Amino acid sequence: MNLRAEGQDSGKRLDALLHERLPEFSRSRLQSWIKDGRVLVNDVSVRASYLIRGAESISVSPAELPPLKAQAEELPLKILYQDDDVVAVDKPAGMVVHAGAGHGSGTLVNALLHHFGLLSSVNGDLRPGIVHRLDRDTSGVLVVARTDRAHQSLAAQFHDRKVEKVYLALVNGLMKTKTGRITAPITRDPHRRTRMTTKLASGRSALTEYEVLEEFKSASYLRVRIGTGRTHQIRVHLSSIGHPIVGDRLYGAPPLQAGLSRFFLHAHYLAFHSPSTSQLIAVESPLPPDLLHFLFVLRQNR
Predict the structure, then answer these.
(1) Where do the CATH 3.10.290.10 domains begin and end in the chain?
(2) Which residues are catalytic?
(3) At a CB cut-off of 8 Å and minimum separation 6, what does 122 contact?
(4) What would the pLDDT profile of 233-283 be if each residue is shown by its tens digit?
(5) Which of 221, 184, 216 is nearest to 203 (CA)?
(6) Torsion sign over Cα 292, 280, 156, 205
(7) For residue range 148-194, what is the model confidence (pLDDT) as tens digits?
(8) Which of 44, 141, 247, 276 is most exposed by smallest CB count within 10 Å?
(9) Where residue 28 falls among pLDDT bands split at 50, 70, 90?
(10) Architecture category of domain 70-157 in CATH
(11) Other C-beta atoms lying within 10 Å of the C-beta of residue 133
């Protein structure tokens, strides 16, 4: 596909211009094509952040589109709870929840389809059953809907803030107070699209509460409860008060410490009401071995 930048496009990012001209493709897909050299500006490969001057010739060579339906894959899956309505799983760190740019297989959805076959269709064929998500490197409890009715019930509970979500996190530095509450609105960082930020006046409301469980020389072990579910909420909120999660380079943490291969954040507890009986269902995921070991080392070196 060949495009031509016009004078009124001057100052726009390349990926933004492509998304305007080619709305049938997601911005993340267009960015992946730029990164792979499938987009040329005046016959030269550039970055997604390239600023249009206004008279460039742009050629786009689309990659083959991934399947429009998630496929079942025989992958290990730790089930914490299940009934006819829902499944609660213990997502390992490193596993993507559903297919996206660069992740067409090996996802939690692929594993769920192998183990359970049919899931809720509310979110379409690429994200069956998915009501909420965890970041790739966040481990812990995630609940999935098996039926459309269950999906609608769970989605309403998340929306109305009736789901209790508790995380365990290790952050850099010592907290000024043993408990705290962060309410800064969260929005996409306009300068780094992979990040969220609390530094703009606009944003979606967010609530994060923390309690210090243990202190080390230069780190604090926290229990974190969130009242909302914004993208990267715990990560950006804790970073905004000067205490990024240990290992979270995206939000300003120092380089990973020996013995830790990802940032220290774990979805420990999730409580919701059964879509069928309204009874409270509480699911807990213990801290995984890699994070347990890191805590053990910290305790030995107090």
Answers:
(1) 2-60
(2) 135
(3) 145, 148, 151, 152, 155
(4) 999 999 999 999 999 999 999 988 778 999 999 999 999 999 999 999 999
(5) 184
(6) negative
(7) 999 999 999 999 999 999 999 999 999 999 999 999 999 999 888 78
(8) 44
(9) confident
(10) 2-Layer Sandwich (3.30)
(11) 16
Helices (H), ranges, 146-232: 148-159
pLDDT at position 101: 56
What's the rounded Cα separation, in Å, for the pair 185 and 170? 22
User: Which stretches within 93-244 are classed as H helix?
Assistant: 108-116, 148-159, 233-240
Question: Do 171 and 219 form a contact (C-beta atoms < 8 A)?
Answer: yes
Are the C-beta atoms of 205 and 182 separated by less than 8 Å? no
CA 239 to chain centre: 16
Q: Tens of pLDDT along 108-128?
A: 999 999 999 899 999 888 889
CATH 3.40.50.700 describes domain 161-302:
no
d(CA 185, CA 197): 8
Residue type, 265: L
What's the pLDDT at 63?
80
pLDDT at 302: 79
Q: Which of 150, 131, 149 lies closest to 141, judged by CA? A: 131
Angstrom CA distances, 287 to 220, 268, 291, 296, stand at 16, 7, 6, 12
pLDDT of residue 10: 93
The candidate with the shortest Cα–Cα distance to 234, out of 255, 257, 250, is: 250
CATH class of the domain whose range is 2-60: alpha beta
Query: 195: which DSSP letter?
Result: -
CATH 3.30.2350.10 domain extents, the chain:
70-157, 161-302
